[in-house]
User: Fold this.
Amino acid sequence: MTNAVNASMAGSSGQIVVAGAGYAGLHVTLRLAAKLRKHSETTLTLIDRHDYHQALTELPRVAGGTRAADAVRIPLQDLLTDRVRFVQSDINGFDLPGRRLLTGAGPIGWTRLVLALGSRPNDFAIPGLAERALSLYSASDAERVWAAVSEALTAAAAATDPERQRRLATVVVGGGGATGVELAGELAEILPKVASGHGLAPDRPTVVLVEAGPTILAGSSPQLIGKAAKTLADLGVAVRINATIAAATEEGFRLTDGQLVEGGVFVWAGGVKAPELVADSDLPTGHNGRVKVDRYLRVLDRQDIYVAGDLASVTDPRTGHVLPPLAQVALEEGETVARNLDAELKGRPLEAFTFHDKGFVVSVGTRRGVADIAGVTTGGHVAHLLKDAIEWEYRQSVKHLRGWDPIPG
Ligand SMILES: Cc1cc2nc3c(=O)[nH]c(=O)nc-3n(C[C@H](O)[C@H](O)[C@H](O)COP(=O)(O)OP(=O)(O)OC[C@H]3O[C@@H](n4cnc5c(N)ncnc54)[C@H](O)[C@@H]3O)c2cc1C
Assistant:
């Protein structure tokens, strides 16, 4: 759907600044770089604290030791053309009235800003969780998980007390969403082999998946949930539903019913929220601190700031629910933002954002998975191959865009 909207950038010089080189921000940048070849008066700046883009969907493999952390860090210099000015810096705040980002490299002014800063793990203020549990939200996080698991298995192998050995060789994953399921499956498949290398019995390591709600993969079809639960059971994962963590202590996760879930390694994958930087700003925020936007993905009452990806709070009119924090959504939003910035430069009407759901795919272990595509549920090797294909296709598309594929129309 299109609407006539005042396009105040038309024909003018300006600074387009993209904050965040994740799925949404990188997509906006690559798409716009192509268009701006004809707009030498407009600068395009990308800012990120890292000089690489992280393929976050591949982190469970890094955490399970089957992929190197560097393989999921894609250097931005390989992706960006000379048309983009890249600034590696932390963004520390906003000067909204002055239209400036406050960064470690000094203030950076914008004519149009794209906020694509992603999200951070949400510990829901559960006591001890932030200190006691590892998170899985960057390649470095994933490396830490794998290092902790290896260390715990080494300690387990050296333990003479069977109870202590059992406890050290147990990995507890909090949160039964897609990330928790992928991590639990990956570890359950890998750990028996790793245990043998440490001189432990292959059946000694255990993976426990703790979920507060009545089901894993909440919101998915019952068929998909059933297939995922069966695959996890085949892999030996102990799934505990209706198990709400009240506190994380030295001993383990204490549940609200008083039970203690013990382990040698604890990982929290129970949810995300917007970065504090945004929560502390005057931007209008909704659930989990995500920024409220209009149908063109601009901040409410701020025509100069677009938001895309996990940070944007976008309600799907078909379901009435806010779209989930997914790479697929981030890429589609990035596409709309790039088109709208291009439309502004050309004085054309903006496009309202519409989400086209391509389906849901989750890997469960290193060889199997589950998928819901166009109302059809698939499991097993096919679903895992599908996940591999999506990740491969994403990497290909990024390289393709670097080749300056123009925005049609
Ligand atoms: C382990 C895991 C597995 C996942 N698996 C899937 C999956 O299979 N399918 C799927 O669709 N989605 C998956 N997701 C979700 C998906 O990764 C996110 O929805 C997606 O990354 C959101 O894109 P984004 O551009 O909004 O944010 P991000 O990709 O997180 O990018 C944000 C960028 O902003 C930068 N940044 C943030 N704050 C600052 C600051 N203050 N200063 C400077 N730079 C900053 C970061 O360095 C980062 O580069 C997964 C997420 C995780 C963590």
Notes: Residues 20-25, 48-50, 56-57, 59-60, 90-91, 116-118, 136-137, 178-179, 275, 277, 309-311, 325-328, 330 surround flavin-adenine dinucleotide (CB under 6 Å). The radius of gyration is 22 Å. Confidence is low (pLDDT under 50) at residues 1-7. DSSP finds ten helices and 27 strands in the chain.
